[in-house]
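Encode chain A's predicted structure.
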Amino acid sequence: MQHVRELWATPEWGSGGRILTDLTGVSSSALPDPDQISKLAAVFVNLSEGRTRQARWAVVANLGYRHASQFADAIQTEVRSVLVFFDLASACIWLGVDLEPLRATVESLRIEAQSRDHQETD
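Encoded structure for chain A:
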């Protein structure tokens, strides 16, 4: 829930019309249960105030595909179009963005997130 609140605290998040979420690094032990997903979606919808209504949102998920699909279904009223993909290349085609520059950005963000996770557990 904290992550959703942090996203909404960033004024530019979602304002560009295209959103990409990469959940491929999420371990199976970190996946939320269906009730948690419903609560997370409710918080998202409550905080959104229409900011993402015109966005195309691609979610890339492997282990969490079913979870991401449940979330996507629950927020359909707040996002013009949200689809869940198994791979980054397909998501990029749908979003209309070049894969290679985005792949580098995603990898950089993954490394940053892993570094933060390690710092928090030390």
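The beta strands are 18-22, 56-60, 81-85.
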